[in-house]
Every structure is written in C-alpha cells, then in structure tokens.
C-alpha cells in the first residue's frame, strides 16, 4: 500500500499495534476535547494565497536556536518508541538525522541517550526534561545530555500531575517486561510500590515553579526551552526568566482537557513575545498546510508527536523518514501555492480566520 499522507500511517498503526499500545499513544485526557480540537482548529484557519509570484525555486530551510534545519518540522518528545518498533528511539534518531531536522528526545525513552547519540552521531538533538522530587535525578540527566552534545533542554511544565487518560486506566497500561525507561536503568531498583508509565508513581515534583527555571540555569549552559505554555501571561514570565524558547503545547491534549488548541493559543503568545525569543508549536499538525498556517501565525518551527510514532509502527526508521518527507513535500507545495518562495516570506497576511 502506498503511503500518501499522514492519515495512511495512522490507519496502519491502528491496525497493527496492540490495543493497549494504540490506546496509549492515541490517549487524550478525560473526554479528549482538547486532543480533538488540536486537529479541528487547523481546519478552521483559511489561507489567503497570493498568485503570480514566480515560485519556480523554493527553499524550506530555516534555523532553530541558530542551527540550520532543512525544513521547519521537528520531532516532539514522545515516550516509549520501542512499543511501536523494536529499535525505538534509535530509529527515530537516524530518520531525523537523515532529514537534517531536530529531534527532541523524551526522558521516557526506551533507548538511552547514549544509544541514541551512538546511532545518529551527527543528528541535531534537544533533550526533554522533567523536574523530579529528587533534584539530583534531574541534575544527573542534564549533565549526561550536555556531555553527549545535546544542544538544548526542553523543560516540560504542564505535568505537575499526570492527566487522567481513561483508556490507560481501563487497560491498566504498563510497559511490557522486556522494555524499560532506559535513562533510569538501575535508578529505581529499591523502589517497591505503584508504578506510573515505567517509573515509580509520585516521582514528578508538583511543587515545580518559576524558581526551578533559575535552578536549571544555574546547573547548565544549555539553552532552556519551556514546553507547555498556553497563555500570554506565562509567555511574558518565560521571557522575564531568561529562557531561550517556548513550545506552545497542551501535551497533545493529554493533560488538561478543555484548554485551547495549541494553534489557537499561538497568536497571543507570539504577539506578547514580539521576537525576543523563538516560539514553536506542537499538537495537531497533520499536513504541510498545517505547517504553513503555524508559521504564518508566528511559529519558528513545529513539532510532531503521534505521526512520528505511526511512522515507526509502519516501518521503523524508513517510516519516520517517509512521514517527515511527506510533510516536507506538502509544505513546499503549500508554500508555492500560497506564493511563498522561502520561510521568510510566510507571514500573518496569509491567514484568514474563517467565519465558522
């Protein structure tokens, strides 16, 4: 079967993954309103194409944090890639290296950060970090990834507690015995008691606050990007606390249900930040025109979560490459059909909010 669009990969993954695995990846919080709205919000946005602009040559390259990538789509941090494909994050890393874009490695990887770097030594990578009750755990991870050449830290801030994902509860979701959260191999051996997504429950620190951003700056020289901001107030605070970037994100609709679609939250954050730091967005990107819309609304780059996992489920590294390549091709075509020759020509004049 020829894979033509990202929905083809989704259908393949739904058919071929176990029910518990599919449900884990697909899960949203509570009624999944926010998860679903992430997709619907893009469909409410209309483009205003310009014509007769000589689009015979186009260039999709951009930069993030000063590093050039081939097109403005990276891989968002998602957990447990080995559930989808035996090589897991190693395959994801090779695919993003091959396409010369950014891969945000999840703390909850089923391959270690060392294995990921060994598999794709020239890849451009950021590391997604949680703050734990035991700060030493977070600090050790920071030093590990800094030494390994990761280029930024992505601090996830929307998980003081894990959202209520109904199907995971119904399925009593657990990592199969042959898989583990590789970055914490051997760390929690003493711990008896309930487990949540591969590590002991209550490991995350719900007391995390803005002062932890200063703490993080005190232990690393890496740029810090905050993931999980949805309001202009928090965007302003992020700038004031000296971070280098924001990922506008609602965690794929897996945390607070009833919050905004991330693309709907993007404009007020871009307007508040006013170019002082870079702003990115994830959640709901399924086509090249979605990428174009996000850039037109001020995102420097977008990140995809679930589609990368579908690509893995289809054919490992090759599947992730296919997903990225399809998005790249679609983005290039949407750009040209809108009259844009390069990403610098994409701006808010391209957007018409529909009257729906």
TrEMBL record:
Binding site for glyoxylate: 24, 165, 251, 254
Keywords: Flavoprotein, FMN, Oxidoreductase
Biological process, per Gene Ontology: fatty acid alpha-oxidation
Cofactor: FMN
PROSITE patterns (alphabetical): FMN_HYDROXY_ACID_DH_1, FMN_HYDROXY_ACID_DH_2
Keyword Cytoplasm: no
Gene3D superfamilies linked to this entry: Aldolase class I (3.20.20.70)
Top EC class of this enzyme: oxidoreductase
CDD domains: alpha_hydroxyacid_oxid_FMN (cd02809)
GO terms of molecular function: (S)-2-hydroxy-acid oxidase activity; FMN binding
Name of protein: (S)-2-hydroxy-acid oxidase
Organism in which the protein naturally occurs: Maylandia zebra
């Amino acid at each position: 079967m020829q894979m033509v669009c990202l929905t083809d990969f989704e259908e393949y993954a739904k058919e071929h993954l176990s029910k518990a695995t599919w449900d884990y990846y697909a899960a949203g919080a509570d009624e999944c309103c926010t998860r679903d709205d992430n997709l619907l919000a893009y469909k409410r946005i209309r483009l205003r194409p310009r014509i007769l602009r000589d689009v015979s040559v186009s260039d999709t390259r951009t930069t993030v944090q000063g590093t050039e990538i081939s097109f403005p789509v990276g891989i968002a941090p998602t957990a447990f890639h080995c559930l989808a494909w035996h090589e897991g994050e190693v395959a994801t890393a090779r695919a993003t290296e091959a396409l010369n874009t950014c891969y945000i490695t999840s703390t909850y990887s089923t391959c270690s950060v060392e294995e990921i770097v060994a598999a794709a030594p020239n890849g451009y990578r950021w590391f997604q970090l949680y703050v734990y009750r035991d700060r030493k755990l977070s600090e050790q991870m920071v030093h590990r990834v800094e030494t390994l050449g990761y280029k930024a830290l992505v601090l996830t801030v929307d998980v003081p507690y894990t959202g209520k994902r109904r199907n995971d509860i119904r399925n009593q979701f657990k990592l199969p015995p042959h898989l583990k959260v590789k970055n914490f191999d051997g760390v929690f051996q003493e711990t008896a008691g309930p487990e949540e997504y591969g590590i002991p429950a209550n490991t995350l620190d719900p007391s995390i606050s803005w002062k932890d951003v200063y703490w993080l700056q005190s232990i690393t020289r890496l740029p810090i990007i905050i993931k999980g901001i949805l309001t202009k107030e928090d965007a302003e605070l992020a700038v004031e606390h000296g971070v280098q970037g924001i990922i506008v994100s609602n965690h794929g609709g897996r945390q607070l249900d009833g919050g905004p679609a991330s693309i709907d939250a993007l404009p007020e954050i871009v307007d508040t930040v006013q170019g002082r730091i870079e702003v990115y967005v994830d959640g709901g990107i399924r086509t090249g025109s979605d990428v174009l819309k996000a850039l037109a609304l001020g995102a420097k780059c977008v990140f995809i979560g679930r589609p990368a996992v579908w690509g893995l489920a289809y054919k490992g590294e090759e599947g992730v490459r296919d997903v990225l390549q399809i998005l790249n091709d679609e983005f290039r075509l949407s750009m040209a059909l809108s009259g844009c020759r390069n990403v610098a020509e994409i701006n808010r004049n391209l957007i018409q909010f529909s009257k729906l």
